[in-house]
Amino acid sequence: MSNRSQQEIREQSQLIFQNGLALLQQGKLEEADKLFLQAHQLNKNNADVLNLLGIRSYQKQHYSSALEFLNRANQLAPGSAQTLSNLGLIHNALLEYAEALQFFNLAIQCDSNIPETHNNRGNALKGLGKNDEAYKAYKSALALRPNYAEALSNQGVLLLEMGKTDQAIVTLENAIQANPHFAIAYNNLGNAFTQIDRYDDAFACFESALQINPGYLDACLNFGNGLKKCKQYEAAIDCYQHALKINPNNAKTFYLLGEIYYDTGDSDLAKTYYAKSLELHPADIETHIALTIAQIPKVAKSEEELRNARRAFTQQLEFASAMPQQKIDSALLQRLITRHPFYLAYQDEDNKPLLLQFGEICASLARSLQDRLDTKQSASIQANPKIRVGIISSFICSHPVWHAITKGWVNYLNPEQFELYIFNTNGVEDEETELAKFKASNYSNCGTDVLTAAQIIANQNLDVILYPEIGMDTIGKALACLRLAPLQAVSWGHPETTGIPTIDVYLTAKLLEPDDANNLYSEELIQLPNLGTYVENQDVVALSPNLENLGIDPSLPILLCAGSPSKYTPSHDFVFVEIAKSLGQCQFIFFNFEANLTAILKERLQLAFANAQLDANQFLRFIPFLKKEEFHGLMQKADLYLDTIGFSGFNTALQAIACNLPAVTKEGARMRGRLASAILHRIGLDDLACQSVGDYIHLVVELIQSPKLLNSYRNKIAKSKALLFNDPEPIKALEDFLIQRTRK
């Protein structure tokens, strides 16, 4: 073929390409794609055509084709910033952030004045967990184009994940000002407002995003997430159902429906929606782990359901453990290791084997995050004579975990020997937080981004980390899967072994544990004296509630049952029936927790009473939550506090004793069933800690039928309860342990 003929073909190819571009700008995508392919067939060496075909393949998520086209373009015209940047885009989409970063760096070497390249480079750095460098990359993009809405939006999301919410909101508002029709920025701003509970502002943002783009699936889903967070569950479900109308085959929507139904106590519907999600995306590890956890109901409807649930959890856990390794981006990894089968602890069985298996899954996932941390220790810190103690918790505020465990550490660990570094994982801050800030050498609210928080903690080069609990706080759970200090210990805020290999020590108490306790933990067990904790004595301030308004008859025995619905297992429903049958007249006072969970417990108890030919309405009272002072007032009017069997209550039992209210408990086989009995043993009231359920029933009946005996216990409590408070022995023992283990 002559040179002239080849030139004509190239010109024809270029003309067809230009016509394709015109169609693309008109939104006629299919027609444009046909012309691009036609141009490519005429001239396979046209780098412009190859670039466009690569981008169109990327937009269709045909990433392998996109790489073929763009790699060919790069071979034909090496040194093209556009081609190199486009290759980086594809690798970003494939979660291959290191490869993407290489291409963006090369593109910037060729031409450093393209703001899109800097913006996309920021996304790659963010994917690698290099948030500070990502922030600088977005800043470079904005230096080239100050009103670059996409870069502002990305920078805002990064700031939000770094825990800098106020800066994030300002940046996202600037993105909207730069482009008032940028739906993504409204969506991201809605997420920021949701995080700080400014729900009306959040919902307005999501509505704006959907007005701009009615088919914007993520905005619809995030709207649902915000409604869920503020406990508007029905409205959230409506949002997710609307999302299914936008895209009926979106696996994430079914996943989120599974999440909300599990959160509200309907594990059957949760499992159904998780299964639908997996039909669409069978390899999704996040949904597999969620489905595993959902096998455990928050409140079981029957003993049979509980048995089947445990068996199904075991089987699903085996399946999740055997899943092949896959490429997982940093954000998903962080979400995965926040998960925990929290409600497994409410089954009164040895959970150690199952938690070890779950813990190994999390530890395996966390290893790639661990590799991204800089954990070098400086010589000046190594020479520090004081022991550097980190405390990681979301409950550095007026919360049961703070009052029972953490506050004693913060107030009474010897400041001459220990430096405290407190890390709040984005929890509430109040007057107790101010105390923590005053006592600590360093206080940090380290946000919700696990890698950012982990690096903040690692930078302090701690000798030891103390977790007051693991399982209640998702960010704390994720951080516990990483090695952030040579010694890492957990206490009993969630009274169950963690199964996590990076947790070395479990801090418990001699009075809390049975004789064979070591076999129940994956961690080394350290039993501190007495109750193992320093609890401050607080004066009881009581206000008498209006019993009549609560439906309580003051002339009948008042038996206080203050546990959450999850603590009442179906196997012990008969206990209330037997007590009622023996007493004839009495009132069991329960509290209205989350509506669906309370409804399951109420229905179960009503059935148990009906099966015994008793009218449950004569005996059961479900009342709203009371203010602390009114709750103490109710305790002072009650006859007995009935501790939950299998999963005991520590703080409630302590409050009962502080109010001189006798508590009856059944001492369990594991620590979580021995919290109230430890309190009773500590003050010499061993008789109130029963060794069998039959003894528990008998003792409750005996005490109600013997007012003189009941009053004698009130008097004993009044004389001995001071032993429970302001106990320095556990703190001294903890200090000795920390010195021994960190200063060998």
Written account of the structure:
Among the domains are: 68 residues, no CATH class; 169 residues, Rossmann fold (3-Layer(aba) Sandwich); 167 residues, Glycogen Phosphorylase B (Rossmann fold), CATH 3.40.50.2000. The protein is 56% helix and 8% strand. The chain is built from 33 helices and 13 strands. The longest helix has 23 residues. The radius of gyration is 30 Å and the shape is elongated. 49% of the residues are buried.
Q: Whole-number radius of gyration?
A: 30 Å
Put simply, the count of helices is 33
Residue share in β-strands: 5-15%
What is the strand arrangement across the widest sheet?
A: 3-2-1-4-5-6-7
Shape: elongated
Supply the CATH class of the domain at 381-536 and 730-742: Alpha Beta
CATH architecture grouping of the domain at 381-536 and 730-742: 3-Layer(aba) Sandwich
Q: Which residue ranges are poorly predicted, with pLDDT under 50 across at least 5 consecutive positions? A: none
Concise overview:
The protein is of the alpha/beta class and 744 residues long.
How would you describe this structure in keywords?
seven-stranded parallel β-sheet, alpha/beta, Rossmann fold, single chain, six-stranded parallel β-sheet
List the helices and strands and how they pair.
Elements: H1 3-25, H2 29-42, H3 47-59, H4 63-76, H5 81-93, H6 97-110, H7 115-127, H8 131-144, H9 149-161, H10 165-178, H11 183-195, H12 199-212, H13 217-229, H14 233-246, H15 251-263, H16 267-280, H17 285-294, H18 303-321, H19 330-336, H20 352-370, H21 379-382, E1 387-393, H22 400-412, E2 418-424, H23 431-439, E3 442-445, H24 450-458, E4 464-467, H25 474-480, E5 487-490, E6 505-509, E7 524-528, E8 558-560, H26 573-583, E9 587-591, H27 595-611, E10 620-623, H28 628-637, E11 640-642, H29 651-658, E12 663-666, H30 675-682, E13 689-690, H31 693-705, H32 707-720, H33 729-742
